[in-house]
Amino acid sequence: MEKMNNSSQVSIQTNLTFADVFAGCGGLSLGLINAGWQGVFAIEKHPDAFGTLKTNLISGRQGNFDWPQWLPPEPIDVTTFITQYEEKLNGLKGNLTLLAGGPPCQGFSLAGGRIHTDPRNTLTEEYINIVRLLEPRFLFIENVQGFTISFQKNGIGKHKDIPYSSLVIEQLDQLGYESFSEIITFSGYGVPQVRKRFILIAVKRDDLALMKLNGQTPFDLLEANREKFLLSKGLAADAPISVKEAIGDLEVRAKELMDSDDSPFNGFKQIVYNAYSYTSPFIELMRENSDTSPNSMRLPRHNPKTIEQFQRIMDSCALGKTISKEDRIRLGINKRAITPLNEASPSATVTTLPDDIIHYSEPRILTVRENARLQTFPDSYEFTGNYTTGNKRRKEDCPRYTQVGNAVPPLFAEAVGQMLKELAS
Predict the structure, then answer these.
(1) How much of the chain is in helix, strand and coil states, percent to nearest 5?
(2) CATH 3.90.120 placement within the chain
(3) Cα 78 → chain centroid
(4) How many angstroms separate the first and last alpha carbons of the chain?
(5) pLDDT tier at 121 (50, 70, 90 boundaries)?
(6) Which of 45, 136, 315, 385 has the most CB atoms lying inside 10 A of its own CB?
(7) Residue-wise over 224-239: b if at least 16 C-beta within 10 A, else e?
(8) pLDDT at residue 15 in the model
(9) DSSP letter string, 163-210
(10) In this predicted model, what pLDDT tens digit does every residue of 174-194 receive, in sequence order?
(11) pLDDT in the model for residue 392
């Protein structure tokens, strides 16, 4: 049985149901919906991130969630969700096709402190609890590469020398799942970044999908389908998308500026969206179904010293690479990670910090919309909440830059969704 989402014209098979845990602003859900999956519910505790997801995928024209009446479409943390709705989850046991999610990665990230006792690390165990309650056919987990590396010296406790990924796989084995995992480079799937992530796909041992794999892994099938998937999107399969090909139409130079739609009275500007002379197949893909100027186009307002510093970095440092320790000392820069982009190459990994990346031809950080492009969010996707935060609020808030940086790129999620759709049928 199928039903049609009239707004996006995506054919939805009602036997392909998913729930998204730690859903963030909805990148993973969007990709699965675009692949033909039906959302049941999504769990996200940050009001801003959930607001973005709700605006687009629950209340908006892009979404396809058959939201249960017993669950208010509001932000909620996973622990509270399990406590309050355990009986309802038991009622769904065995009826969900896919449980997807990307548990928070900050405690595992190689770019951060990798603190074994970071409380966010234990949220992976809550994901396992939901698996135990729902017993879905398939599981999909996304996390940073550090998820596969033990904490060793800076960890404490009996599991400090064991990667969290191994602990998760062991628990899933006890629950009757066959797990497959790989580190995937997303640039191979149309994502214009050198972004690499740990991906785990698990299948119930009694599921016919394992027989269909016939000794292969889901990742073998994903790679076998890769070229066909990219060609269906009008993208080349033999070369990664460069930064210029991703955001070249959003350059400021020679563009007319207007007051920002998000803040028209405080002096922020943005380019006029429809005035562009450069395009690419990727840009055309991102602009599909975007009949008005997208939000989150607000340009930064750097002070003159910051602009001068950015220009020195662009003029004297290797483009497309994180600036070296020697260059940081030479330029008097304390920040450890900052990359001036190379227009001919994919972007550095988009993070939650807007000043980690400098534009390839303009001495400024990227806009939220440009970061969203690099994460393959279509221009029709709207982001809600503040743009940035700082100081002590960074661990608590989830502004737009953070939402985008934490997201699973929808284009990669769609490729995975299509592969799992083939296995599930």
Answers:
(1) 40, 15, 45
(2) 243-386
(3) 19
(4) 12
(5) very low
(6) 136
(7) ebbeebbeebebeeee
(8) 83
(9) -HHHHHHHHHHHTTEEEEEEEEEGGGGT-SB--EEEEEEEEETT-HHH
(10) 999 999 999 999 999 999 999
(11) 67
Q: Please compute Rg for the chain using Cα positions.
A: 21
Gap between the Cα atoms of 140 and 379, Å rounded: 26
Distance CA 209, CA 200 (A): 16
Please tell me whether residue 350 adopts helix, strand or coil conformation.
Answer: coil
For residue 178, what are the β-bridge partners?
A: 203
CATH number belonging to domain 2-236+408-424? 3.40.50.150
Q: How far apart are the C-alpha atoms of 173 and 155, rounded to whole Å?
A: 25
pLDDT in tens, 411-423: 999 999 999 999 9
Residues of CATH 3.40.50.150 domain(s) within the chain? 2-236+408-424
How far is it, in rounded angstroms, from Cα 229 to Cα 190? Answer: 9
pLDDT greater at residue 166 or residue 270: 270
Residues 6+ apart with CB under 8 A from 332: none
Rounded Cα distance, 226 and 320, in Å: 26
Rounded Cα distance, 171 and 165, in Å: 10
Q: What is the pLDDT of residue 389?
A: 78
With a pLDDT cut of 90, the percent of the chain lying above it is 73
Which of 190, 198, 186 lies closest to 140, judged by CA?
198
The three state secondary structure string of 119-142 is: HHHHHHHHHHHHHHHHCCCEEEEE
pLDDT digits (tens, 9 = 90+) for 20-33: 999 999 999 999 99
Could you tell me the CA-to-CA distances from 37 to 32, 96, 210, 290, 418 in Å, in that order? 5, 11, 20, 22, 9
The partner residues of 138 in beta bridges, in order of sequence, read 98, 203
Tokens of 391: 């100081």
According to the CATH classification, is domain 243-386 in 1.10.287?
Answer: no
